[in-house]
Design goal:
The complex is a heterodimer of chains A (255) and B (236). Chain A is mainly alpha-helical and 255 residues long. Chain A contains eleven helices and no strands. In chain A, helix 2 packs antiparallel against helix 3, helix 3 runs parallel beside helix 6 and helix 6 packs across helix 7. In chain B, helix 7 crosses helix 8. Classes of the chains: A mainly alpha (255), B alpha/beta (236).
C-alpha cells in the first residue's frame, strides 16, 4: 500500500494545481498579515478566507482527481492488490497532498506572524478541514460513474456546508427565538465541520464575547478540555464516516 | 483451475450473466465465443474480481475469490480496450507494475522484445495508437509469467506481424501447460490456439466442448462453419 501511496502522491505533486493552490494560500496569508498590523485581526480575516477556500479546493480537486485516475484504478484492480488498499491509498495521497499544501502555504506564514496557540490551532484546523473534504469527495466520486454528476454533487456538498447550512441554522434560530436553543446549538454546530472549525478558532481568540449568551454557552462547552476533545473527535468522525461509506461502496463497485 | 458456479449478474434490467457455471482444468485453452453483448467480457471481469456478481461463487485453485485478492498474482489479463493513466510513460507503467507485484517468478520480457517496445518506453500512454496500446496490454499480461492468461480479443487492432508474434507466444505458453481463456471473433485464429470451445448467448453458456467433439457433432470440418451452424440454430 505504501508503494501505491507513493505513486499517487508523486502524481498529485507533479500536478500544477496543487502547486498553484500552495502559492495562492501563501500569498493571501502573507497579504492579510502585511495589511493588518494587529495579528488578531489578521487571523480573523484569514479564518474566513480559509474556511471558504480550503473546503472548496479540497473537495473539487479530490473529486476531479479520482475521476481522472479511473484508468489507474482499473489497472490496479486487475493486479494482486486489495481494493481496500487502492481506495485508501488514493485517499491518503489526496489528503496528504492537500494537507501538505496547507501546511506549506498557510502554515509557514502563520508560524512567522502568529506565534501562539491560536496560530497552531488554525493550522490543525485547516489540515483537518482539508482531510474532511477529501473524504467527502470520495463519497461524491464513488456514487456515480458520470464525472459531471460527481463534480456537481461535490459542489452541492460544499455549498451546503459553507452557505446553506448556516442559512438554515439562522432560520431555525429566528423561528424558535422564544425557546432556549443554546444547548441545541452546540449539537447543531457540531454537525457542520466548517462551523466547528470556526467556533474552535473564535473561542481561542476571545471574541466570543461578541456572540452574546450563545457565545458564553459555547465557551463553557468548547472552551474546556473536554469540549476540545469532543470537537476533535467529531472532526475525526467527519473524516472516518464518509471514508468508510465510500470504501464499502467501492468494494462492491463494478469497474 | 477456475470453478465458477451459477454466476448471475444484472446491469439494470439487462441480465448479462444468467446462472453461468464453468469448470476448467489447467493446460486447457478455452475459446469464449458468442455474439456481441452475450456476456463474455462480464464473465471474464467476474473472474478477475472487477465486476462483483449478484450471486454465485467463483473459486480459483479451490479458493474463493470473493474475499481473496492474492489469486490475481497468478493471472495475466489483457483487456479488450486497455486503459492506462494518460500522463504515465510506457516504461513507468511497466516499472510500477513490477514494483507493485514483486513477483517471485521470473519476469518474461519476450513480448516486449517481439514488439520492440523498449524503444517506445519514453512515450506517454495518452499519445499511443490503439495498436500500440494493445501491444502494451499484451506485454503486461505475459510479463509476470502467470499460470492463467485471460485475453480479451487479443489480436484486435494489432498489425499482422504483431498478431503473429502474439499467437506464437500463446502457442509457446500453451506448451508449458498454462490455462488460457481467450475471447475473439476471429474464428480462424481460435482454431489454431484453442483446445476447448465455450459458446455463450444472452448470458448463458450454450455449450462447452473440446474442439474435436464440436467438429464431430456438427459434422463440419472448420470451426467457423460449426459456429455459424450454432448461431443460426434457434435457441432451445
Amino acid at each position: 500500500m505504501i508503494k501505491i501511496v507513493k505513486y499517487i502522491l508523486l502524481d498529485i505533486l507533479r500536478n500544477k494545481i496543487v502547486l498553484a493552490y500552495t502559492i495562492f494560500l501563501f500569498a493571501i496569508t502573507f497579504c492579510v498579515f502585511s495589511l493588518e498590523d494587529n495579528a488578531e485581526k489578521g487571523l480573523l480575516t484569514l479564518l474566513n478566507l480559509i474556511l471558504f477556500i480550503v473546503p472548496l479546493v479540497s473537495i473539487i480537486f479530490s473529486t476531479i482527481y479520482i475521476y481522472n485516475s479511473s484508468e489507474f484504478i482499473e489497472l490496479l484492480v486487475s493486479q494482486p492488490i486489495k481494493r481496500k488498499s487502492i481506495w485508501l491509498s488514493l485517499f491518503t495521497g489526496l489528503a496528504g497532498a492537500l494537507s501538505l499544501a496547507f501546511i506549506i502555504g498557510a502554515g509557514i506564514p502563520l508560524l512567522i506572524y502568529v506565534r501562539s496557540v491560536t496560530g497552531l490551532m488554525m493550522i490543525v484546523n485547516g489540515v483537518l478541514i482539508s482531510v474532511i473534504f477529501a473524504s467527502l469527495a470520495m463519497v461524491a466520486a464513488v456514487r456515480t460513474r458520470d464525472k459531471a454528476k460527481g463534480i456537481g454533487f461535490s459542489i452541492l456538498l460544499w455549498l451546503f456546508f459553507s452557505l446553506v447550512y448556516d442559512g438554515l441554522v439562522l432560520f431555525l434560530l429566528f423561528q424558535f427565538s422564544d425557546y432556549p436553543l443554546e444547548k441545541a446549538m452546540i449539537i447543531i454546530s457540531a454537525l457542520n465541520p466548517i462551523d466547528l472549525g470556526r467556533i474552535l478558532i473564535l473561542l481561542k481568540m476571545d471574541v466570543s464575547a461578541l456572540m452574546g449568551y450563545t457565545g458564553a454557552v459555547f465557551k463553557e462547552f468548547y472552551g474546556t478540555e473536554k469540549g476540545l476533545f469532543v470537537s476533535f473527535s467529531v472532526m475525526i468522525l467527519w473524516i472516518l464516516l464518509p471514508l468508510l461509506y465510500s470504501l464499502r461502496k467501492f468494494n462492491r463497485k463494478d469497474l | 483451475m477456475i470453478e465458477a458456479i451459477s454466476i448471475s449478474k444484472k446491469f439494470g434490467k439487462l441480465k448479462a450473466l444468467n446462472n453461468v457455471s464453468i469448470v476448467t482444468g489447467s493446460g486447457q485453452s478455452i475459446a469464449l465465443v458468442g455474439p456481441n453483448g452475450c456476456g463474455k467480457t462480464t464473465l471474464i471481469k467476474c473472474i478477475l474480481g472487477m465486476v462483483v456478481p449478484d450471486s454465485g461463487t467463483i473459486k480459483l485453485k479451490s479458493e474463493s475469490i470473493a474475499t481473496g485478492w492474492k489469486y490475481r498474482s497468478i493471472i495475466g489479463y489483457m483487456p479488450q480496450v486497455g486503459r492506462y493513466p494518460d500522463q504515465m510513460k510506457i516504461g513507468q507503467v511497466m516499472d510500477m507494475l513490477t514494483d507493485i507485484r514483486q513477483s517471485p517468478s521470473s519476469i518474461d520480457e519476450d513480448l516486449i522484445k517481439a514488439f520492440s517496445l523498449k524503444g517506445l518506453y519514453n512515450k506517454r500512454m495518452g499519445t499511443l495508437s490503439g495498436g500500440t496500446m494493445q501491444k502494451v496490454s499484451a506485454s503486461i499480461a505475459f510479463l509476470f509469467n502467470p499460470e492463467i492468461l485471460i485475453l480479451d480479443e487479443p489480436t484486435a487492432g494489432l498489425d499482422p506481424v504483431a498478431s503473429e508474434a502474439l499467437k506464437e507466444k500463446i502457442a509457446a505458453e500453451k506448451q508449458k501447460g498454462k490455462l488460457f481463456l481467450i475471447t475473439s471473433h476471429i474464428l480462424s485464429e481460435l482454431e489454431e490456439l484453442a483446445t476447448h470451445i465455450v459458446y455463450m448467448q444472452d448470458g448463458v453458456i450454450m455449450l462447452y466442448k473440446t474442439m474435436e467433439a464440436l467438429k464431430v457433432d456438427t459434422g463440419e470440418n472448420k470451426l467457423s462453419r460449426a459456429i455459424a451452424q450454432l448461431m443460426t440454430k434457434p435457441a432451445p
